[in-house]
Specification:
Elements lengths: L6 H18 L3 H7 L5 H8 L18 H14 L1 H21 L2 H13 L4 E4 L15 E5 L2 E12 L6 E7 L9 E7 L5 E6 L10 E12 L3 E2 L5 H37 L1 E2 L2 E2 L4 H29 L5 H26 L10 H8 L9 H14 L1
Parallel strand pairs: 1-4
Antiparallel strand pairs: 2-3, 3-7, 4-5, 5-8, 6-7, 9-10
Length: 380
């Protein structure tokens, strides 16, 4: 394995960095304070190919590798983790689910729209009583003639109130448990589908997070993704890749926080010298950057194996666990290095600190990642 980025990847990394600084940075403070997604950014993301990162070119996507995807997400999240999360949920969950398991007709109809930048996509698995226990969902779809009738609700759905195309998991045969779960495409505007409460969150405030409500929603038979009863297996496969994207999102948080702390430590003087001269500060930076490299290697490995067509439950869980917990540690140390200024909204580290915690919760908590890793180790 070559540990050096190719010339193409270096150019990609630099182009995303410039895009994030020009188009995202000016919006960060206001969108965070308001807790609102800057909708003008959606089209710009689409024009950059960032809403079709891993969608094949035949469906208007960029067709990038998973490793390139990780590079992109880290750069976006260094500037605003909320943008990184929105892009990850759109690509890894919604679009990738249709790409991997949808029919040719579904791909032609939906992937082109998702890649365009004219709309966002969302993915609905979590419910009030089905979080870590994903198989406990209560949303049901009952077949009636040539249609399915969907009833239930979803919670904490990223892009929930903005998305026009949603991939939703529902129970189609409760007696079969997880083997009775199926997946459906639901479009915004379908009768009976409404958006409930929008969450007021600690961090990642600009990323739209909402409740979805389905009341007698009638879906045509062709909106079923894959075979009936195969939804849970599909979801677990999607989450393997989703964890890699969350690891990349966490890398961006850690890198952004550490870079801000490093810059400050060179400028801030106490006792007639920069605080970067003090061993206490140096050790925090040394630990942070060492762990950042370790997390990046874990994440790159998982993405590399995905690109080789391998399943990565163990590798993705390891990357997500380590990178997400690093994001919390690194952003906490960054606040500590800035001292009182670390609590000020005039500096970016307080936002990285608030944003970081979601990385240890979303797409499987750290406890679930440890359980997955343990199961894989015991099997090996």
């Amino acid at each position: 394995m070559d540990f050096l980025l190719t010339d193409e990847q270096k150019i990609l990394k630099e182009s995303i960095k410039k895009f994030a600084q020009k188009e995202i940075q000016p919006l960060v403070k206001e969108s965070d304070q308001k807790g609102e997604w800057p909708e003008e950014l959606t089209l710009k993301l689409g024009e950059m190919g960032l809403l079709g990162i891993i969608i094949p070119p035949e469906y208007s996507g960029a067709g990038y590798s998973n490793l390139n995807y990780v590079i992109i997400l880290e750069e976006l999240s260094k500037v605003d983790p909320a943008v990184g999360l929105v892009v990850a949920a759109h690509n890894s969950l919604c679009a990738n689910h249709i790409n991997l398991f949808g029919t040719q007709e579904q791909k032609k109809k939906y992937l082109t729209r998702l890649a365009s930048g004219k709309t966002l996509g969302a993915w609905g698995l979590t419910e009030a009583g089905a979080g870590s226990d994903a198989a406990a969902l209560k949303t049901q779809a009952v077949k009636k003639g040539d249609t399915w009738v969907l009833n239930g609700s979803k919670l904490f759905i990223t892009n929930g109130s903005l998305a026009e195309i949603l991939v939703i998991m529902a129970m189609t045969d409760p007696e079969k448990g997880r083997k009775g779960i199926s997946t459906f495409i639901v479009e915004k505007g379908t009768e009976g589908f409404t958006v409930g409460k929008k969450e007021e969150k600690l961090g990642i405030r600009a990323a739209d997070t909402a409740e979805l409500i389905f009341e007698e929603v009638i879906l045509p038979a062709e909106n079923l993704i894959g075979e009936e009863g195969n939804g849970y297996r599909q979801a677990m496969g999607i989450l393997d890749g989703g964890r890699v994207s969350i690891a990349a999102f966490a890398l961006g948080i850690a890198a952004g926080a550490l870079d801000a702390a490093l810059k400050y430590s060179k400028e801030r003087e106490q006792f007639d010298q920069p605080i970067s001269n003090f061993q206490a500060i140096q050790w925090m930076l040394a630990d942070g950057y060492t762990e950042l490299d370790a997390a990046r290697l874990l994440t790159y490995r998982a993405a590399f194996l995905e690109d080789k067509g391998k399943r990565v439950p163990r590798e993705s869980a390891m990357a997500k666990l380590y990178a997400s917990e690093l994001a919390v540690r690194a952003s906490s140390d960054a606040v500590q290095i800035l001292g009182g200024y670390g609590f000020s909204k005039e500096y970016p580290v307080e936002k990285f600190y608030r944003d970081s915690k979601l990385a240890t919760i979303g797409e499987g908590t750290s406890e679930i990642q440890r359980w997955i890793i343990a199961q894989q180790v015991l099997k090996s």
